[in-house]
Amino acid sequence: MKKRFVLGALAVVVLTQAGCATDVKSLPLAAAGGQSSGGVPVYFGQQNHPAVTANLGDVSYSVRIARKVLSPEDACHEALAEAVQKLRTAAHARNANAVIDVSTRFHSTETNSSTDFTCGVSPSAAAIAVKGQLVVLEAN
């Protein structure tokens, strides 16, 4: 009797967790709005930018958003947009005029690309971590 109860409880746990896997996605940055929107330019990977006159330090943030009814891709783009806004806010606070060398990560999967970003998405949430360098760039 005790054995049946334990096996039954284990089966319930396995069945409830079966749909909770997180997928790691690599998605195009272009669909996420790119560097130009939002005031402070954000340069992903090794994108070309004006010369750096001052490096004000590294910054990193993690963002997790509830998926609501969004598609996995839309949820990842929303998470990226929120993370990039945090980078821009940090740049304003530290008197930087750009964020360069931005990379994205989900757990151990990191992307330092100028065309794609990495995001983790599950049935309930999307998550991303971003890091970059706050800098002052030469004015054109």
UniProtKB/TrEMBL annotation:
Keywords, comma-separated and alphabetical: Signal
SUPFAM superfamilies in the cross-refs: YbjQ-like
Signal peptide: 1-21
InterPro entries cross-referenced by the UniProt entry: UPF0145_dom_sf (IPR035439)
Name used for this protein in its record: Signal peptidase
Provenance organism: Paraburkholderia haematera
